[in-house]
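INFO batch 0412 | record 1 of 1 | parsing
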Amino acid sequence: MPNGEALLVEATAQTWPLAKPFVISRGAKTKAHVIVVHVSDGPHTGCGEAVPYSRYGETIDDALAAVRAIEGPIKRSRLAGLLPPGAARNALDCALWDLDAKRTQKRVWQLAGLDKPQPVLTAYTVSLGEPAEMATTARSVPHFKLLKLKLGGAGDTARIAAVRAARPDARLIADANESWTPDMLEPHLDAAANASVELIEQPLPAGADDALAGISHAIPICADESVNTSAGLAALKQRYDAINIKLDKTGGFTEALVMARAARAHGFKIMMGSMVATSLAVAPAVLLAQGADWVDLDGPLLLARDREPCLLIENGWIAPPTPDLWG
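INFO prediction complete | emitting tokens
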């Protein structure tokens, strides 16, 4: 597996407007704020994109400063000792993988020992809103067959029922983004089961999810905010059935690859997810989404415009990235 040295060329911030507000239990956003990193060995340049996330105490300025503070040649195998898991390390790690692909004239999936990637079906996100509003959104995208509902706690049983009534044909998964309380678990999980929801993501706040260990549930419960890297997997076993792997949490493609393999070894189902970002950030995740139980990589679809070149996405099916985009 190539792992040559490179020099940082630049680290910049970019802003990408969304097509419409993206609303979850923690608030709304109208723009995607990302960092983009370029590294070079001279003849070749690799790039990576990441999303600093305030939920984890990250800012754009801090992420850029962390990347720019690294002096001298950068080697992927040393990144874990230079930067903690998070957006800064993700952008650098993915840029170095892209550089290795260009340097060796091989694809990243080959360098990582993965099978040749195939198109994957992504969920399309229905933002948090009133039940009728969410039903209208779900009805407006009949070509998306897997929908992810953003939930917010009180009123979620009505939201789930309204979307199911609007889209009896769709597969549904739901993300509570830490908004439920323990007393909501039984009625909300029953409502989800009655609506044939396939997965409930992060119902309780990370660090306050012990109640999950004592409930019976017909629907798999997925950890997102409760786990960032492979080191945290063992502690989840009594509470969660699945995990959401995001490169911005793991700190890049390298750790995400380790985490996916470790998750399978621990018996967890896998969702491959990402923050709202452009195709450059999502491209590495498409490789890791091969064989995932659920895929949630619709970030580029939520933008007013994507970067060029971009991922090809048709009716929710994402084709693997081309070499001119990444990897």
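INFO post-check: The mean pLDDT is 96.
INFO record closed
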